[in-house]
Amino acid sequence: MALSTGRAAGTASDPAAGGDARGRRHRGERGRLRGSLHRHWYAWAMVTPVLVVMAVLIGWPLARGVYLSLTDATEANIGRTIGVNVIPSSYEFVGLDNYLEILTSDVFWDKLLWTVVWTVVCVGFHYGIGLGLAMMLNRELRFRSLYRVLLILPWAVPAFVAAFVWRYLYNSDYGVINGMLRAVGLSGVGWLDDPTTAKLAVIAVNVWIGVPFMMIAVLGGLQSIPKELYEAAEVDGATPWQRFAQITLPGLRQVSSTVILLGTIWTFNMFPIIFLVTRGGPGSETEILVTYAFREAFTGVRDYSGSAAWGVIILGLLVVLALAYRRTLRRQGEIW
Question: Which residue intervals define the domain ABC transmembrane type-1 in the entry (predicted)?
Answer without folding.
Answer: 112-325
